[in-house]
Amino acid sequence: MFTGAHVILYSQDAAADRAFLRDVIGFAHVDAGDGWLLFKLPPAEVAVHPTDGEPRHEFYLMCDDLDGVLAQLAARGAEITRPVADAPWGRLTAVRLPSGSELPLYQPLHPVAYDL
Questions:
Q1: pTM for this model (two decimals)
Q2: Which pLDDT belongs to residue 12?
């Protein structure tokens, strides 16, 4: 029925964040015109969490080896913005985008759905 998902990151410096995703993260991309880059993402999954607050959406990049990914990103100039937090269900941290926002990174320690 569906062929994919389209994720939108809003940015106050879209050109710099696009360059970061292209050059530091290394995502393959197409140019939809006028430098409007669309990036190929790894396989994905979606979860629905309960909240008592306002509904919101989050976007995490998942990996199998968070320490290895952090070493590669740091070597490419990425700023790691928080220490790795270990939880029973996974390991979390984030890198700084050029616009100043954070891009969360996540190593799941639970079964995943993206390879079903």
A1: 0.89
A2: 95
